[in-house]
Design brief:
By secondary structure, the chain is mainly alpha-helical. It has four helices and no strands. It has one domain (about 5-60): Winged helix-like DNA-binding domain superfamily/Winged helix DNA-binding domain (Arc Repressor Mutant, subunit A, Orthogonal Bundle). Keywords: DNA-binding, Transcription, Transcription regulation.
């Protein structure tokens, strides 16, 4: 399992708060497309296919609290 980057972690943290890609993009000052790229990369690194599974895997692995 590759290490999730700090930016990917930040995106996952906002996802866990229920924010959309557009909202996360506004908060972080990046485009929603870039947010979705971070999400896709993190899903690949954690071996999951869905966004809810990504948040669950991040919680399980101590990436977010």
């Amino acid at each position: 399992m590759s290490q999730v980057t700090p930016r990917e972690t930040e995106v996952i943290r906002w996802m866990a708060e229920g924010k959309t890609a557009a909202e996360i993009g506004t908060i972080l000052g990046i485009s929603p497309i870039t947010v979705n790229t971070h999400i896709a990369n993190a899903k690949m690194k954690l071996g999951v296919f869905k966004e809810t599974a990504l948040v669950a895997a991040a919680l399980r692995n101590g990436i977010i609290r």
